[in-house]
Write a structure and sequence with these properties.
- The chain is mainly β.
- The protein has one domain: 7 Propeller (Methylamine Dehydrogenase, Chain H).
- It contains no helices and 28 strands.
- The strands form seven sheets. It has a four-stranded antiparallel β-sheet with strand order 1-28-27-26, with no helix packed on it.
- 52% of the residues are buried.
- InterPro entries: PEX7 (IPR044536), WD40/YVTN_repeat-like_dom_sf (IPR015943), WD40_PAC1 (IPR020472), WD40_repeat_CS (IPR019775), WD40_repeat_dom_sf (IPR036322), WD40_rpt (IPR001680).
- One of its GO terms (cellular component) is peroxisomal matrix.
- Keywords: Cytoplasm, Peroxisome, Protein transport, Repeat, Transport, WD repeat.
- This is Peroxin-7.
- It is found in: Cytoplasm, Cytosol; Peroxisome matrix.
Length: 314
């Protein structure tokens, strides 16, 4: 394992570049995101797995999520606490190259479509309950979804179907939307009696989604049949983030407020790896898109940890 520091700002989320094997961006916020400035940090790692800091962009409000452009290798979109979305170019220091401001509350999440690479989605995790669809070439959002009653915690594009987006929120519901008919979700599941904090699509099994919940569980759903396929337990507190492996269809990683990240094998319904090196909430994780054994986490302990999972030893 190698570690880099984001101090004095806490890590909130991170994402690997779809163009470069070792390149990642980290979203950071001061005072645990409650008030204060933010920072977008760029890192890479060398052949020995050592994390190397590169460009930093400082902002007046916390940054809560990041997504790399699917069109331009140096561009990163950031979700901000002031309700704005900013697009940065890592080769152009200091200032964002584009900015949008339509959300009435904090923007806690952002996702770039891999099907329509000109499009990205943002979600407000406060009380406006909306998801907005954007393209970098437009000064205004293309579409606004009335996604949930209350907070929207996650909005992720399908890796298989164009015009398809899944959302989850504080109402405990999992929605799947067809963006061509945005008035109401195409599918809606009452997935949890508590808040749903995260979701992710399986990259190999169409219609399969994992969710992470305040009730400490991770569930895998077949949304076409409205059926729960797996119910995974092991975390001691809420599951903040889930992400399917981009390399193996039955592997999921999770991050939790119990200060651990875990790797699960859905084929045997069990946890196969625990990463417990963080000393505060683990808020972000990301699989390398090129190396199946590299998982990276960040948290409120100001640390970014790169973990080698070869062997999957506990």
């Amino acid at each position: 394992m190698s570690t880099a520091s984001t101090a004095p700002l806490a890590g909130y989320s991170l994402a690997y570049s779809p163009f470069h094997k070792s390149r990642l961006a980290v979203a950071c916020a001061a005072n645990y995101g409650l008030v204060g400035n933010g920072r977008l940090c760029e890192y890479s790692y060398d052949t020995h797995g050592n994390l190397i800091p590169h460009t930093n962009f400082d902002t007046q409000d916390g940054i809560f999520d990041v997504a790399w452009s699917e069109m331009h290798e140096n561009q990163v979109a950031a979700a901000s606490g002031d309700g704005s979305v900013r697009l940065f170019d890592t080769q152009i220091p200091q200032y964002p190259i584009r900015g949008w401001h339509e959300h009435s509350r904090e923007v806690f999440g952002i996702d770039w479509s891999t099907m329509d690479k000109t499009q990205f989605a943002t979600r407000s995790a406060s009380w406006d309950g909306t998801v907005k669809i954007w393209t970098p070439d437009s000064t205004r959002s293309l579409l606004t979804l009335p996604a949930h009653e209350g907070c929207v915690y996650s909005a992720i594009y399908s890796p298989h179907l164009p015009f398809t987006l899944a959302t989850c929120g504080s109402d405990g519901k999992l929605h799947v939307w067809d963006l061509r008919t945005p008035q109401r979700p195409a599918t809606s599941l009452a997935a949890s009696p508590t808040e749903l904090l995260s979701l992710d699509w399986n990259k190999y099994l169409q219609g399969t989604i994992a969710t992470g919940s305040v009730d400490k569980s991770i569930k895998v759903w077949d949304v076409r049949q409205a059926r729960c396929l797996n119910n995974l337990h092991g975390h001691d507190f809420a599951v903040r983030r889930v992400q399917f492996s981009p390399h193996v269809q039955n592997i999921i990683a999770s991050a939790s407020y119990d200060m651990s990240a875990r790797v699960w094998d859905t084929s045997v319904n069990k946890c196969v790896f625990v990463h417990d090196a963080h000393t505060e909430f683990v808020t972000g994780l990301a699989w390398s898109l090129f190396d199946p054994f590299v998982l990276t986490t960040c948290g409120w302990d100001y640390k970014v940890n790169l973990v080698n999972l070869k062997g999957m030893q506990r």
